[in-house]
TrEMBL record, chain A:
Family annotation (Pfam families): ABC_tran
UniProt similarity note: Belongs to the ABC transporter superfamily.
InterPro entries: AAA+_ATPase, ABC_ATPase_HisP-typ, ABC_transporter-like_ATP-bd, ABC_transporter-like_CS, MetN_ABC_transporter-like, P-loop_NTPase
Keywords of this entry: ATP-binding, Nucleotide-binding, Transport
Record protein name field: ABC transporter
Native source species: Streptomyces lomondensis
Domain (ABC transporter): residue spans on this chain: 7-241
Superkingdom of the source species: Bacteria
The keyword Nucleotide-binding is assigned to this record: yes
Claim: Endoplasmic reticulum is one of the keywords in the record: no
SMART domains from the UniProt entry: AAA
Length: 250, 298
């Protein structure tokens, strides 16, 4: 890869108390590509994403965003987070704000975008994601799928360099999963760089340029989607995928 | 219009369909109405009986005639009422000023206690020491120290006005309580909300101001109103410094007549003042519970 990767991790290690959650994790995410993190619950996918956004402090190793080391303690963490969008499993919308206020909070308060401009962009994004009529609603009036799409708009509103999606369909009813995944497909077509932790293997296979299989905090296998899903090299990857197939998720 | 996909029952259906209630439903509703009527009747009878028993017990008590004379004298009540009301105006003003001061000071202390980082250690420590001290110190002793002790110092330029000093003492004590209410509210906001704010690039202070505090304050409205009701009646304690509030006004008449009826009048006036406040508290609480039941994720 000649281009500077948007995100690069080297030998990242993270522990919680006595347990090692991430160990020797290397990762490289090229611009305009999608990386899928797969693996059982507790394998470290979410922690990896939280570390990339500095919501968790890593114990060892280093992380670069656009070639700048963001794990340097002298770095302004808020400035780093401004360049990364995150969508959480539980949406984490602000319940006391309307949809529009949720979306325009960061552009207005952090990036100093004038209100009218921020709202215009928010409405445009909402429209594109099929939420045109929902700008004035409070989150608790929306379905799970709608809330998650609003959360995606909120993350996109600041035009991040990188979008982290943390099991964004895990809390949704099966019939609502589709509408959210459609949105992510659209984002890939727009060339937005994404890293997503997911249990939707069919979706990962379809949308990801790179797939990483994590187990016990270690990246056991990495490769293209065809390679990891079609011809896994590791026995444990094969076993994991077999279980997924048996559960009817692939 | 887009199709709403909300939970059933939340949307009103105004489509005129051909629904006719079944006999089963009518029977069920008739039974429910009958049961409600019976419940109301039982409640009324039970209230009457209880009231009658209480009345008879009090009236037939051996000391009742004397008690009635000293506590429930209509003549003294008429004399005391306007003076007590006049004094009450001071209580109301104290409530408004102290209430506002308490909310501001309490919020500052609560925020100080949640600050992170070593720079703020002294601030955190002071705030914690403040709440510990003033929540433990009985209000009446606090009042005596401030209202009687401060003037005794004969400091230049420091007020000796019992109303100002009494208000200060009330503010000191109640700020400690209200700070804890605010702090509980701040801590009850789920960490994922802060994480979401930080992930958007908001700094610690911005996350607190735009995301955490608005939710914390909203949640703490019922307990805050509760403390305000409590403050309202405790404004009566400034009378120990000699300020003529409702209690003191009653006190003056009692001192002259040796009849306690004015105290009863003052007490009832306070109750009358507090009731709208407590009803408001109940109403706000009920409304918030309803919202939460609908919303789920609040």
């Amino acid at each position: 890869m000649s281009e500077t990767p948007v995100l690069r991790m080297e030998s990242v290690r993270k522990t919680f108390g006595g347990s090692v959650v991430l160990q020797d994790v290397d990762l490289e995410v090229a611009p305009h590509t999608v990386t899928a993190l797969i693996g059982a619950s507790g394998s470290g996918k979410s922690t990896l994403l939280r570390c990339a956004n500095l919501l968790e402090e890593i114990d060892d190793g280093a992380i670069w965003l656009d070639g700048e080391e963001i794990t340097d303690p002298r770095v302004d963490q808020d400035a780093v987070r401004r360049r990364i969008g995150v969508v959480f499993q539980a949406y984490n919308l602000f319940p006391h704000m309307t949809v529009l206020e949720n979306i325009t909070l960061a552009p207005r308060r952090v990036h100093g975008v004038p209100r009218a401009e921020a709202e215009a962009r928010a409405r445009e994004l909402l429209e594109r994601l099929g939420l045109g009529g929902k700008a004035g609603e409070y989150p608790d009036r929306l379905s799970g799928g709608q809330q998650q799409r609003v959360a995606i708009v909120r993350a996109l509103a600041v035009r991040p360099r990188l979008l982290l999606l943390d099991e964004i369909t895990a809390a949704l009813d099966p019939e609502l999963v589709g509408e959210v995944l459609t949105v992510v497909r659209g984002l890939k077509e727009e060339g937005i760089t994404m890293v997503l932790a997911t249990h939707e293997m069919g979706f990962a296979r379809e949308v990801a340029d790179q797939v990483c299989f994590l187990e016990g905090g270690v990246v056991l296998e990495r490769g293209t989607a065809e390679q990891v899903f079609g011809d896994p090299r590791q026995e444990r990857t094969r076993r994991f995928l077999r279980r997924i197939v048996e559960a009817g998720r692939l | 219009m887009t199709v709403h996909k909300t939970e059933p029952g939340s949307e009103k259906q105004d489509a005129p369909d051909d629904y006719v209630p079944s006999q089963r439903r009518l029977d069920r509703e008739r039974h429910k109405r009958a049961r409600a009527r019976r419940a109301t009747a039982i409640g009324a009878v039970s209230t009457l009986v209880t009231g009658a028993v209480l009345y008879l017990v009090v009236v037939n008590a051996p000391g009742w005639p004397r008690t009635q004379e000293t506590f429930f004298d209509w003549g003294y009540a008429r004399e005391a009422f306007p003076k007590v009301l006049e004094g009450l105006w001071l209580n109301v003003r104290l409530l408004l000023v102290c209430g506002a001061a308490v909310l501001v000071l309490g919020m500052l202390i609560a925020v100080a206690r949640t600050l992170r980082g070593p720079v703020f250690f002294p601030l955190r420590f002071l705030a914690a020491a403040y709440t510990d001290f003033f929540r433990g110190l009985p209000l009446i002793i606090n009042l005596m120290i401030v209202v009687l002790g401060v003037p005794a110092l004969r400091l230049q330029g420091v007020t000796v006005d019992p109303v100002l000093l009494g208000g200060t003492a009330l503010t000191l004590t109640y700020s400690a309580y209200v700070a804890e209410v605010f702090r509980a509210g701040i801590e009850s906001v789920h960490p994922s909300q802060r994480a979401a704010a930080r992930s958007l690039g908001l700094g610690n202070r911005q996350a607190l101001r735009y995301v955490v505090l608005p939710q914390a304050v909203r949640r703490q409205v019922p307990p805050l109103l509760n403390d305000l009701v409590s403050l309202q009646k405790d404004t009566g304690l400034v009378s120990i410094g000699g300020a003529v509030d409702a209690v003191r006004a009653a006190d003056i008449i009692v001192g002259r007549s040796l009849n306690y009826t004015p105290y009863i009048v003052a007490g009832l006036v306070f109750v009358a003042l507090t009731i709208p406040m407590t009803r408001l508290t109940d109403w706000v609480t009920a409304r918030m519970d309803r919202r939460r039941a609908q919303g789920g994720t609040t």
